[in-house]
Design brief:
heterodimer; A: 396 residues; alpha+beta; Rossmann fold; Coagulation Factor XIII, Chain A, domain 1; 2 domains; six-stranded mixed sheet; 22% helix; globular; disordered C terminus; B: 275 residues; 70% helix
Chain lengths: 396, 275
């Protein structure tokens, strides 16, 4: 069996320009070199699946850009055998004004199919996406989950020999996720090579036996997933990457049910506890803590942060900050992400943030849809036809 | 899977050979076509009058200009002014529209271009290709008006599609070079707007070349002039300095095509590093 992907001594350097490129103020423009990847050796045999993990700024995005052919390495050599299908970002290349049908046509050709091949596979793509009734709707009206369904459906129908999967599977409902995983296993069985970039190690465990941990643009670990976790945490602890100019704060957080058990799925009306732990490289007095909840891929639903000065504790090396944010889940069925960040005392400058925590909301409601539970009740001719389930429990 | 059909991607930071670049771009013409069709359809999708705008706008513009330049400022042209100006406006409208969107195409398409690889030349070519339909329609209107005015058509009218093809190549090459520069210098957007503003008056769109007097050499050096004069030659059977201005346009086109191919062979795989 031959190799699908070979990277030998690959490095990628970006020129970072500071200040404006103004002709009127020469000398103000400074160029800095930034090595996003350095001396990366990576060999992936045909049909193998590799997970790539690393914190923000570790070089994951640069690696994906190189593998998809968008960007050429500055040093070293890269060789990929087979048709590459990137599944990166939701609805990239989807035109908001065009219908799902028209976008399938364009996206298929963008991923290397001919117009005829797209037509032949069209029905199968539609079947897989399960959004048949929306195909003649402009995609600007799609939810992020629908976007993903269509994008994934097109990507898996291009006979990819090498498939690049970014952290997109976190979107979409659990049933569709399961379907995607199943289809990916099918493709794996057919000999498709996968590179999966993720923050979510447990999900990787089910997909890939092998993991690569990137840290500061170098391969910090390459081996079985089971041992990757400690390497990943070591990379996190080293504090590398990210913004290098400020005091660095590493924030970790987890979602808990009211009884203290961790969870990713919460019922409408349930309490969500967000347990936060932050460690500091340098002393910070009176940090500000902020939390934001957002439906995946969309704007903010809710945010809360402490008033600057309301908390006056001092933290530093060896004096971590522990906090807990309690939320009442008033959201309806879809996927959300929680972002927790720690800011400088004046509240503006972000010192550190945790990776987004994704969770799903399961609602008991059959009548209501949307993001927020407004606890609507419909009375028709004196008869209660629809009511929020909480009231019904009250013995109505 | 047939091993012959397995594509192999090899990258080591070297420039893409110009021949391979052109071959790759030609292989992706299907993608260019669907993107252009999408661009065209999306533009009129939410408009109640839809496609009719491609006819209405140049017609309105031509009528206004015709009123101004025959009733207010009296410009004398050998042929009827309305047809004369509509031919000019059709050509200018195409150049103006396609260059404005084309010169920022790489940055505007950045979200896409940084995720999926296809020859970067495709992106600036999309507005140039999608503009062709409107260009053809407005030329058709101009030809109709000219026929009503003069009551005759000329044999060289069959060459008009060739003039359109020349305009397409010129616009693609110019957009491609500008779009690449725009990645590094975001001033390009404004420079292009400014140049187009000046070039409108430096092109014999609303006035005949004979009125340029001492500035005639400058106007002829403008690559758009050749296209306008060639189109008028096709429609009316005559135009001032058509040979020399056409030669100038051809030279510009050849030069810009060479520049675009060389620039993209160097930057095809790193143009999007800054997006």
């Amino acid at each position: 069996m031959s190799n699908a992907i070979e990277l030998a001594g690959v490095g990628k350097r970006y020129q970072v320009v500071e200040g404006q490129p103004m002709l009127l103020r020469p000398g103000r423009r400074r160029q800095r070199e930034l090595w996003a990847l350095r001396d990366v050796d990576l060999v992936v045999p045909e049909g193998e699946t590799v997970g790539v993990i690393g914190r923000n700024g570790s070089g994951k995005t640069s690696l994906l850009r190189l593998l998809s052919g968008v960007s050429a390495p500055t040093t070293g050599h890269l060789r990929i055998v087979g048709r590459i299908a990137p599944l990166i970002g939701i609805g990239v290349g989807f035109h908001p004004e065009m219908t799902g049908r028209e976008n399938v046509e364009v996206n298929g050709q963008m991923l290397g199919l001919t117009a005829q091949q797209v037509r032949q596979r069209y029905d199968s793509i539609v079947d897989f996406s399960e959004i048949e009734s929306f195909l003649d709707t402009p995609v600007k009206f799609y939810s992020s989950g629908m976007f993903l369904r269509l994008a994934f459906a097109v990507a898996v129908h291009t006979d990819p020999q090498v498939m690049l999967v970014d952290e997109v599977l976190a979107v979409g409902d659990l049933t569709f996720q399961a379907k995607c995983l199943e289809r990916m296993r099918e493709l794996q069985a057919q000999g498709t090579t996968f590179v999966i970039v993720t923050h979510n190690l447990p999900s990787l465990d089910r997909m890939a036996p092998r993991a690569v941990v990137l840290s500061e643009g170098r391969v910090a670990y390459d081996g079985p997933v089971s041992n990757a976790l400690s390497a990943y945490h070591a990379a996190l602890e080293s504090g590398a990457g990210g913004a290098a100019d400020d005091v660095r704060v590493r924030v970790t957080a987890e979602l808990l049910h009211d009884d203290g058990s961790t969870g990713r799925s919460f019922r409408t009306g349930e309490r969500i506890r967000v347990r936060v732990h932050a460690t500091f490289d340098d002393d910070v007095t009176a940090p500000v803590l902020g939390l934001m909840v957002a439906p995946l891929g969309l704007g903010m639903t809710y945010s809360i942060n402490t008033t600057p000065g309301a908390y006056e504790g001092t933290h530093g090396p060896g004096r971590p900050l522990d906090a807990e944010v309690t939320l009442t889940n008033r959201m309806l069925d879809t996927s959300y992400a929680v972002h927790v960040s720690v800011h400088a005392p004046e509240g503006r400058r972000e010192l550190g943030a945790c990776e987004p925590l994704v969770f799903y909301v399961r609602s008991d409601q059959t009548a209501a849809r949307g993001f927020v539970d407004l606890e609507g009740e419909i009375v028709m001719n004196g008869q209660v036809v629809a009511a929020p389930p909480v009231r019904r429990l009250d013995g109505r | 899977m047939n091993p012959m059909s397995t594509p192999v991607l090899e990258l080591n930071g070297a420039a893409t050979p110009p021949a391979a670049l052109v071959r790759d771009a030609m292989r992706h013409r299907g993608l260019l076509l669907v993107l252009a069709r999408q661009d065209f359809a999306a533009r009129y999708r939410s408009a109640a009058l839809g496609l009719a705008w491609t006819v209405l706008l140049p017609l309105l513009q031509g009528t206004v200009l015709a009123v101004v330049f025959t009733k207010v400022v009296r410009v004398h042209t050998d042929v009827g002014y309305v047809g004369f100006v509509l031919v000019g406006m059709a050509t200018w409208g195409y150049l103006n529209g396609a260059l404005t969107s084309g010169s920022t195409a790489l940055v505007d398409g950045g979200a896409l271009a940084t995720k999926v690889y296809f020859p970067r030349l495709i992106l600036p070519a999309v507005p140039a290709a999608s503009g062709l339909a409107g260009y053809a329609i407005s030329l058709l209107v101009a030809v109709g008006v000219a026929l009503v005015q003069t009551g005759e058509l000329h044999l060289q009218l069959v060459l008009l599609p060739l003039v359109m093809a020349l305009a397409l190549v010129l616009v693609v090459a110019l957009s491609a070079v500008a779009a690449l520069l725009h990645v590094w210098f975001r001033d390009v957007r404004y420079v292009v707007t400014a140049l187009l503003l000046v070039a409108f008056y430096g092109t014999p769109v609303i006035y005949p070349l004979s009125l340029a007097h001492g500035l005639r050499p400058v106007v002829i050096a403008n690559p758009a002039t050749g296209l306008v004069q060639l189109s008028r030659w096709c429609v009316f059977g005559r135009a001032d300095d058509v040979l020399v201005s056409a030669a100038v346009t051809l030279l510009w086109t050849a030069g810009l095509v060479t520049a675009a191919v060389l620039a993209y062979s160097r930057h095809d795989r790193n143009a999007c590093d800054r997006l």
